[in-house]
């Protein structure tokens, strides 16, 4: 089974409640709801009793990248959570549309957006969905390949070490790298599924792709409402999994790897505070982000900041550099260098083969036919 098959095969499901353990389920649901409101309304959670008993322990004596690698080699980590942002996809060539001067940002000028982020503003989208779909065409998954950073996470999974992979990215490169769907939390959604904004009818990726690349505004076949990819816009909630899974994921998690994120976008950034008392936190990023301010550096109960290279650091390690360089250094230190290289090579060959097969298929299907004015093959819409 290829990486792409895996990515296409399993559709993320909503958590289902079973009849047994209903009481337990109710508790979990209540806890999830409580956390949901705490995070979306920005209530402080730091004063509950569970936090008081959680004094962070120093697991690694030498809190440098070398110290962490040595500890990993000698003692290992058993349960790893990764959380990633745009930085792990930049080497794939995915442009940063927020940066003035980038080609993408300039392309959007003709739409006269009030500000670049208006493109992900639900109210704006309702009035004028065209700029979003123009951007979607530029960024559409399929034109980019996963990076060594994505494949490093896949390697963690192959080794049975990956508990969960939380991503802010909407590029679906995590799935394309063969990280199983159930291991991924796409915190800001993705192009994977699409829904009609009026009647909620679901459409799959192939249907949406056909619409976008035909420069059509995707309209619901049932009610003519606009169909939008399940990307979390401003004013929309994050997926249920983002709120329901961290408790279980961080229980016994002994290493949190944070890569390529500014740690500024909430509630995503607040994931770092779930790390338990024995959890080491490794940041791989170009800029030193997420660090304690001067004041909070003296607050031992400050769970929202990292302390690498600062006083009172007991568990944080920082690697300042490109994500790919960071994971390659880590792989080398762990003796996984060849394994990572081989995995990348094998997977990229598969993707190239699939891309050329898809291209042939596309060429066949775009040949003129009797019903060429129909938008998309009906077989591709999901049931
Ligand atoms: Zn509809």
Distance between the termini: 23 Å
Annotation field: number of helices = 14
Present as ligands are: zinc ion
CATH architecture type of the largest domain: 3-Layer(aba) Sandwich
* Percent of residues in beta strands: 5-15%
- Overall number of domains: 2
What would you call the structural class?
alpha/beta
Describe the structure.
This protein has 383 residues and is of the alpha/beta class. The protein folds into two domains: 36-91 and 147-188 and 239-295 and 317-361, TPP-binding domain (Rossmann fold, 3-Layer(aba) Sandwich), CATH 3.40.50; 95-143 and 191-231, SIR2/SIRT2 'Small Domain'. The protein is 36% helix and 12% strand. It has 14 helices and nine strands. The protein has helices spanning 3-9, 22-40, 49-52, 65-75, 103-107, 122-127, 130-139, 148-158, 173-176, 205-213, 240-244, 246-250, 323-334, 337-365; strands at 80-84, 162-167, 184-186, 189-196, 202-204, 227-231, 255-259, 280-285, 316-320. The strands form two sheets. It has a six-stranded parallel beta sheet, covered by helices on one side. Strands 5-4-6 form a three-stranded antiparallel beta sheet. The longest helix is centred in the last third of the chain and has 29 residues, at 337-365. It starts with a helix and ends in an 18-residue tail after the last helix. It binds zinc ion.
Notable features of this structure?
six-stranded parallel sheet, Rossmann fold, globular, 383 residues, binds zinc ion, 36% helix, SIR2/SIRT2 'Small Domain', alpha/beta, NAD+ binding, 14 helices, 2 domains, disordered C terminus
